[in-house]
Amino acid sequence: MLRTSTFRRVATSAQVNNINPWKFVEDILPPIQIPQPDMNQKFPTPTGWQPPSKDLQSFDYPFFVERNRFHELDLVEEERSTEFFDLNYDNRYQDKHDIALRKRNPSDDLPVTHLYNCSGDIFQLRHEICQYLEELSGEPVAGQADEPEARITVTGKYAYFIREFLYKKGF
């Protein structure tokens, strides 16, 4: 290939060293880390958050509940349908049963609450949570402990009460 121009764009070392390419971007981007909470304020905060107890190790529980990266207990409420998925949704050979499944009544969905990041004897933790919720509601509460997922699932929307229970325990 024949070069018709003699001009070349070659950066000198002085030009490269003087350029800060991230100078304008750093002003716009938010900080990557989530800041540590201010421990000099009154707890619980107006949002209801409180830190773990300082003497949590002295309680010697056989289980532990970690907080997520936002320093919160990882509680999720959802409504689970009786059929989680329809295998024949894209199947051209559908029958009346498949159509009926798609016309399900959402009011029949089962409300559940998941507690994530549990470790240790999570079966005992599940038992204590279910006992606490049964005393509050006066009705039986079903609970499921999933050890590989480190998750406890209870029937009903009890995220607020489970959070209060864990705060009382010191988590």
Blueprint (SSEs and pairs):
Elements lengths: L12 H6 L4 H6 L27 H4 L3 E3 L9 E6 L15 H7 L7 E7 L1 E3 L1 H16 L5 E4 L4 E5 L3 H11 L2
Describe the structure.
The protein is an alpha+beta fold and 171 residues long. The chain has a domain at 56-169: Translation Initiation Factor Eif1, CATH 3.30.780. The chain is built from six helices and six strands, in the order αααββαββαββα. The chain has helices at residues 13-18, 23-28, 56-59, 96-102, 122-137, 159-169, and strands at residues 63-65, 75-80, 110-116, 118-120, 143-146, 151-155. The strands form two sheets. It has a four-stranded antiparallel β-sheet, with helices on one face. The longest helix has 16 residues, at 122-137. 9% of the residues are buried.
How would you summarize what this structure contains?
Keywords: Mitochondrion, Ribonucleoprotein, Ribosomal protein. With 171 residues, the chain is of the alpha+beta class.
| Fraction of residues in β-strands | 15-25%
Radius of gyration: 27 Å
Total DSSP helices: 6
What CATH architecture of the domain at 56-169 do you see?
Answer: 2-Layer Sandwich
Question: What is the CATH level 1 assignment of the domain at 56-169?
Answer: Alpha Beta
Total beta strand runs: 6
Protein name: Large ribosomal subunit protein mL49
GO molecular function, one term: structural constituent of ribosome
Family: Belongs to the mitochondrion-specific ribosomal protein mL49 family.
Keywords: Mitochondrion, Ribonucleoprotein, Ribosomal protein
Task: Write out key terms for the chains shown.
mitochondrion; 171 residues; two-stranded antiparallel sheet; Translation Initiation Factor Eif1; four-stranded antiparallel β-sheet; Ribosomal_mL49; alpha+beta
